[in-house]
Design goal:
alpha/beta; TIM Barrel; eight-stranded parallel β-barrel; two-stranded antiparallel sheet
Amino acid sequence: MRILHCFNWKLGEIISILEEVKKQGFEAIQINPIQPLKDGGGQEWWMSYQPIAFEIGNYFGTLEDLKLLCEEASKYDIRIFADVVLNYMESDLDDNLKSCPKVDLKLQKLEYCKNRQDVIHNCLDLQGLNIYQKDVENIIVEFLNKLIDCGVSGFKFNSAKFIGLPSEGYRFWPNVIYRLKKYGLFLYGDVTFEDNKKILDEYSNYMCILGEHDCSDRNKMVKYVENCDTFLSNNDLGYTKNIPSDEIIDEYCNLINLYPNTLFYIRPFDESWKSSKIKDYHCIVKNNCKILRLARRKK
């Protein structure tokens, strides 16, 4: 799966590039979190990850915009993957364990984690939801199924590594994933900076791994050279912002040769995703895979 990450693009803007996306050999587009945002979104890049509800519609598009995008993308055989934030809601700046007044009231009434350890290993210093509570799980499943109804055919789970696994006593992932109304969804999640292969392998039972370190099965990885964090962050996490686009393209093409699932992040005001080299590599690797499949059938 070759995924193009249209970070902070409005859904209507994505419709205008679908034909070129197809020509470039990308098979799917990852869109922004489409949940309502604390301050509306659209100012600072990280505001796209400050949700206040499990609903559809924000600065980047409405529910109807999402339906239209999925409908138009299907004409080009392009899948739409939604980036979703499931385990936290935005907090007050003064007290990150106190719910923001803008957070959906029905979520404010649910049980929140009571201390820093309970906020799923600090939960990125944001208001952690007790996602292991059945009421919260039900709201999340309903939200994901609404996205599926709009035509979304895959999910990127933001901060997946902060959600516990069955071996740790938490059954959130199987409980949620097995209740989704559509089979064959492409699921992948952030498990960044995790190098414990046992943990990575367990996550890979439920989704593909988006991260630097590989699990045991290369087919269960989604590899990238950079993402919005590594390019836009002003701290040490922004380690790719000074790397020229040409070098990013070269490294991405190397990944295409090595992994069946890759993600290419579109830098702001940058058209390197239209590179002929990317197009050629997508095409060559895809054709080689077809030849291998035919050879196996003949055997």
